[in-house]
Amino acid sequence: MEAEELEYVGFWSRVGASLIDTILIGIVIWPLLTAFYGDAYWEGASMVKGPMDFLLSWVFPMVAVLVFWVAKQATPGKMAISARIVDAKTGAAPSTGQFIGRYLAYFLSGLPLGMGIFWVAFDGRKQGWHDKLAGTVVVRQKNRKPRPVTFDQSH
């Protein structure tokens, strides 16, 4: 696809994609957590209630997201809005290292009251801090409000 055919994906579209992903992951892990820990799992404030909780709530989502990113450049939520993650400089598929860095950078983006996530709404290239740190952008074919995409080596 030529750069002129693409637009950066904005905040609300990405929120929608994230909600889709959260629901899909939840459909898989919530029944398993309840089966393993019982209804008591949903009571209390403990962040991790045991090894199975850690595997299902932290490891499985990370692996699932990374597998989708490497295979499709998108999670199911991003696919639902026809978006994909590309290298910010070249427009090509990011490296596995970029994807891993992007995933880990989500935690940094969320720390200061989610400012790194909300940054997508204000950034000219619609990059969150996780995108900036990993050198990625989220794009899709133009379909509504055109926003030209340029792959500039200086970013």
What does the model show?
The chain has one domain. Helices cover 51% and strands 9% of the residues. The longest helix has 27 residues. The protein is elongated, with a radius of gyration of 17 Å. By secondary structure, the protein is mainly alpha-helical. The mean pLDDT is 91. It is built from six helices and three strands, in the order E-H-H-H-E-H-H-H-E. A three-stranded antiparallel β-sheet has the order 1-3-2.
Descriptors for this entry?
mainly alpha, 155 residues, elongated, three-stranded antiparallel β-sheet
Strand order of the largest sheet: 1-3-2
The helicity comes to: 40-55%
Number of strand segments: 3
**SSE run:** EHHHEHHHE
Shape: elongated
Gyration radius over CA? 17 Å
What assembly state would you assign to the polypeptide chains in this entry?
single chain
Number of helices: 6
Let me know the average pLDDT.
91
Show unreliable segments: none
Q: How would a crystallographer describe the biggest sheet?
A: 3 strands, antiparallel
What layout of secondary structure does this protein have?
Layout: E1 6-8, H1 11-37, H2 51-72, H3 76-80, E2 83-87, H4 96-110, H5 115-118, H6 129-134, E3 136-141
Antiparallel strand pairs: 1-3, 2-3
